[in-house]
Write a sequence for this structure.
């Protein structure tokens, strides 16, 4: 219980760091984009603003996932994290469309070149976002949290979008300085490139989160340690079936084992209870359902 409580404290702190960090960056980038006359930087600011909503969704999902099992949710609320990850992916998709729209409209009217303040702010944003990505990615892997990992990749997509913005801003400034008029459109072109990066990231992360939410079971190579733990009991003659369902940050195991058919019901129940207790001691295993079958060499169910 202490370990679970510590997990959620770390996860919630990460979400709060994301919320505060993104608010600060979004405000700074939006202001610098307006003052520095950069469509790419304004698009990047919108991206950061969407990350605020994403971090909020992750925080709400983590709070929901923290709740213990109840009558309506006997397997717990772990999938709330995956649902939060899907919400983040949808938000990213909407933001990507909006960035593409605003960048395209920039081609339809005269443009002024960006100024140096836009360059400075983009560089600061790249450094800050990469640091946030590395922090959240490592924590997400450590805690086995889809929501935190997805949120980490939000920061990484912001890094890529900021790099694209930096290229576009710099090219537009160089074009203006050298009298190459068409290079001024490098700024909105960078905005379009940012939108493609955001849309691609939304698709990848959304697809993965939906896959997890739809009761995805671990592949056989990922359940080897579970099978080995069960077969350490000499009373277990055979494993007829083992499904480990991902339920957010933990798994639920459905297991059918075969034992000596001459054992009493009580003896079979005792073996099943011991198997369950051992599996529950393994990392990320939250619940185990054990079904006892009589062992017959030629039967598998």
């Amino acid at each position: 219980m202490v370990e679970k409580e510590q997990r959620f404290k770390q996860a919630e702190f990460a979400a709060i760091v994301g919320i505060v960090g993104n608010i600060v960056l979004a405000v700074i980038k939006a202001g610098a984009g307006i003052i520095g006359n950069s469509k790419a930087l304004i698009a990047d600011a919108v991206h950061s603003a969407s990350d605020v909503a994403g971090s909020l969704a992750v925080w709400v999902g983590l709070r929901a996932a923290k709740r213990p099992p109840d009558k309506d949710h006997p397997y717990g609320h772990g999938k709330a994290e995956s649902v939060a990850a899907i919400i983040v992916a949808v938000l990213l998709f909407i933001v990507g469309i909006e960035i593409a729209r605003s960048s395209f409209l920039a081609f339809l009217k005269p443009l002024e070149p960006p100024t140096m303040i836009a360059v400075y702010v983009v560089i600061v944003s790249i450094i800050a976002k990469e640091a946030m990505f590395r922090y959240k990615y490592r924590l997400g892997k450590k805690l086995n949290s889809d929501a935190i990992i997805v949120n980490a990749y939000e920061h990484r997509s912001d890094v890529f979008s900021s790099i694209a913005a930096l290229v576009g801003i710099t090219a537009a400034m160089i074009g203006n300085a050298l009298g190459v008029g068409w290079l001024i459109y490098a700024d909105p072109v960078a905005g379009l490139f940012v939108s493609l990066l955001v849309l691609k990231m939304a698709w990848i992360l959304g697809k993965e989160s939906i896959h997890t939410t739809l009761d995805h079971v671990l592949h056989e190579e990922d359940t080897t340690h579970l099978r080995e733990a069960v077969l350490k009991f000499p009373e277990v003659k055979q494993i007829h079936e083992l499904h480990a369902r991902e339920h957010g940050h933990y798994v639920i195991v459905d297991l059918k084992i075969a034992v000596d058919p001459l054992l009493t019901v009580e003896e079979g129940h005792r073996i099943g209870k011991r198997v369950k207790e051992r599996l529950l001691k393994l990392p990320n295993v939250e619940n185990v359902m054990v079904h006892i079958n009589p062992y017959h060499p030629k039967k598998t169910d």
